[in-house]
Amino acid sequence: MLTDRQCKVLKLIVEKYIKDPVPVGSKTISKTLKCSSATVRNEMSALEEAGLLEKTHTSSGRVPSEEGYRYYVDHLMEPKKMTGEDMLKLQTVFHNQQLSLSDVIVKSLQVISDMTNYTTVVLGSTSHENLLKQIEVVPIDEGSLIVIVITDRGHVEHKNIRLQDVSLEEVKKTVNLINNLIIGTPIDEVSAKLEYEVKPIIGKYVKQHEQLYNAFYHVFSDFTNQEVNVVGKNKFLQQPEFSNIEKIRSVFNKLDNPELLHKIEKDDDNNIKVYIGSESKIDDDVTVIKTRFKSGNQEGTLAIIGPKRMEYDRVVAMLEYMRENIER
Amino acid sequence: MLTDRQCKVLKLIVEKYIKDPVPVGSKTISKTLKCSSATVRNEMSALEEAGLLEKTHTSSGRVPSEEGYRYYVDHLMEPKKMTGEDMLKLQTVFHNQQLSLSDVIVKSLQVISDMTNYTTVVLGSTSHENLLKQIEVVPIDEGSLIVIVITDRGHVEHKNIRLQDVSLEEVKKTVNLINNLIIGTPIDEVSAKLEYEVKPIIGKYVKQHEQLYNAFYHVFSDFTNQEVNVVGKNKFLQQPEFSNIEKIRSVFNKLDNPELLHKIEKDDDNNIKVYIGSESKIDDDVTVIKTRFKSGNQEGTLAIIGPKRMEYDRVVAMLEYMRENIER
DNA sequence: GCTAGCACTACTATTATACGAGTGCTAATT
DNA sequence: AATTAGCACTCGTATAATAGTAGTGCTAGC
Q1: CA nearest B235 in A: which residue?
Q2: Which tens digit of pLDDT belongs to each residue from B192-206?
Q3: A210 near B CB under 8 A
Q4: Full-model pTM
Q5: CA of A120 vs chain B CAs: smallest distance (Å)
Q6: Using a CB cutoff of 8 Å and minimum separation of 24, what contacts does B237-246 make?
Q7: Nearest by CB: A138 against B134, B141, B214
């Protein structure tokens, strides 16, 4: 267990280091704490013993370790309320009645990304949670038409398909069959249902059924698994710990591959979760802070992704504000 | 005018430098050319005089200047035919009958980006060239519905809008009015036409017309000006001339801002165009190679973006192959 | 338990030095 | 007249030596 003073020292080091990413020495801390640098050094070495601080080399100041940040976030960080300026900028987005919820979310995440210089992410609901609501077909020209798929949660996707020697009649018949038979099915089960329930039937009633079946099958099997929106990826290029091209490349590749982000959102209570360094699964220098949100039939995950050396208090306050505002 | 041998020297230097980005010395060239290094040095200094070569410092090998690349592209480069391997990989995409044209284009550009480690871009037709074909409306829940806009070229866009106290009846009436009055209008003129032709009419026939009008107005004024698809932006992180974070940041910002890419496609004959270094308007170390394509009612621009030190012959061959295959 | 004091460590910046890949120029050769 | 051998010279890169400094750990005294 840490003494009261050790907590203070750790807190000061973390906050100092977050402001300015250079190892913090005992002298700096002794100025704000009412004691000598030697005393601080003793406390520091205790904190290092406990695994909360690290040295970059034998004789330089301390840097918080992953556990140090964790301790800070879990025990030391004071819930900060948002500054008036931050609040104001977000409010102008939220109070815009014109915008639909998903637009509000994306716009406000853009604002947050610009204010903080961190990357933000929205994950929508998965294709498992989206139920097929309606299919529309619009012919474009000879042999080519657009299939539009709408889900109950308002997710829309479309695909241009090519058909040879299939009359519009036949297409309409098929669409009607699908609309009658499998409305309400989770998107990720539609392909299977098409095969076992629709294929046998259109085989009887529709000419060119093979081609039509294949086309629709692809529309659904290509359906996005989860809507992912990453805003402000380039912000990483402004963070000093990512001055190395290799590191940037690795982080960008992970951010482009949404599957990794999915892992983030396993748990689904409503609290704000903080994944520090290696916990982020993105990079040891990256922290992910996320929360789930739910509003009517819309739900998903918001995340802010930045360096481990993140303004935790500010980001947590913003995410909390976001969630509260979305949920009403 | 350059002598025959000067051309050979320039060509060798450019090609050598493209393979391996270190300044090329006279000795290297003298090996392939049947003459001494001193002779090559004389030719080199003539080429430098002519502005086609540059030195990184007083005593190191030569590097092609922007004009050097230009000369190479315009006069020296031999039209290369694609290697069997490159061809094969692209053919498997083109021969996939399932895919629509736009899918084929994006997929093959992905393949090209992976083969070459350059970034690729497709620009679709602009909202000026797309004519409104149809509007569909799907109610999602109380007070919220999705508007889907389809253009004659198969471009689809949708927007979630919120309406208060507007019955579905009224919405349908409005949609019918729009579908009757302004089908066939270029997308970028729809907003204006809504105001002058539709607004006065729905004012008479539709309750809550103000709100409905505003919602539809926004759907069209937010319509994407031009479909832009940038594939493999991260490839820049693998190019040695972009090892500097500042440079990467500047290039990424330009690539994210499609308006700059539009400038590229002013001219519209069908030839392949090469914009080297400063001509690219992106970065002095960037080259853009592009061509327009047209196929049925689809048209647009393909571009490959990479370092100035690009495999010009290979990229030109690929773009040519792409265009030919798209156009039938 | 705290702190002053001091020896010690390792990073950073600066300078000196050697090395080498390349050049330009001149004079000799073809 | 064009080519080439030869040589002095230039400048970037790499290595080592040096000084300076911000920090440490430890000890002894308050």
Answers
A1: A249
A2: 998 898 888 888 777
A3: no
A4: 0.91
A5: 16
A6: B237/A245, B237/A248, B237/A249, B237/A252, B238/A249, B238/B117, B239/B117, B239/B306, B239/B307, B240/B21, B241/B21, B241/B285, B241/B307, B241/B308, B241/B309, B242/A245, B242/B285, B242/B307, B243/A245, B245/A237, B245/A242, B245/A243, B245/A245, B245/A248
A7: B134
